[in-house]
Amino acid sequence: MREQNIRTEILIGKDAMERISSGHVAVFGAGGVGGYVIEALARSGVGTIEIIDSDTVDPTNLNRQIISLHSTIGILKTEAFRDRIHDINPDINVIIHSCFYLPDKKDEFDFDKMDYIVDAIDTVTAKIDLILEAEKRGIPIISAMGCGNRLDPSKLKITDLYKTSGDPLAKIMRHELRRRGVRKLCVCCSDEEPIKPQIDISEQERKAGKENVRRFTPGSSPFVPPAAGLLIASRVVMDLMKEDSQSK
């Protein structure tokens, strides 16, 4: 036991700390939400953290993403997080995939080794497939709903997807997953109504040559995505602490 984990062990006890340190958590998406999940998992002493993301750090990430610094701009987020995690705790096993998760890429991942999955992906198609894969394999999963165009982190909560309202992404996910027979899903969702963006920068991004620009780029704050990430990480860690958490 490293000294850096002693304050956590004081709180939860040795046995729970050992269960956390033997856990393998995969985080799909290392952006505003996923990045804070990764940070908190590392500081909690999770033994293996698997990170899946295709992006590099961009200047527009600086307002909310923990990995984003002027010194990391242009670096793959997966590689930047691998270095950061090892700077926090050299004992953590970090597995990185510098790619975007899509249904046709699922064979590239060893799901059977994962104790928990965090879905912090933006794309509906990828989210749905990942959720279905987790359900099929009996792997606990928690999914992030919309955090863009919001300012109030106190409106966030962990709940079941079918108890959410007012979130456009959650509405789409409820419809699509109900059609596929998914009856429950743990999500992090906000009760705050999305704020109408004051400006549209999508056209500027297209002219700048950026790829995969959304029709309307959402606004984001330094408060909501990080708070969502910390909420998700807390649920994952508390579940890993349970004695039956890894008996898939």
Description:
- The protein has 248 residues and is of the alpha/beta class.
- The protein has 8 helices and 7 strands.
- The protein has a 7-stranded mixed β-sheet, with helices on both faces.
- Strand 2, helix 4 and strand 3 form a beta-alpha-beta unit.
- Helix 3 runs parallel beside helix 8.
- The longest helix is centred in the last third of the chain and has 18 residues.
- The protein is globular and about 50 Å long.
- 39% of the residues are buried.
- The model has no long low-confidence stretch (mean pLDDT 92).
Write the layout of secondary structure elements.
Layout: H1 6-12, H2 14-21, E1 24-28, H3 32-44, E2 48-52, H4 77-88, E3 93-97, E4 116-119, H5 124-137, E5 141-144, E6 156-160, H6 168-179, E7 186-190, H7 202-207, H8 224-241
Parallel strand pairs: 1-2, 1-4, 2-3, 4-5, 5-7
Antiparallel strand pairs: 6-7
Helix pairs in contact: 1-2, 3-8
Overall spatial form: globular
The low-confidence runs, each spanning 5 or more residues with pLDDT under 50, are: none
Oligomer: single chain
If strands are numbered along the chain, what order do they take across the biggest sheet? 3-2-1-4-5-7-6
Strand content: 5-15%
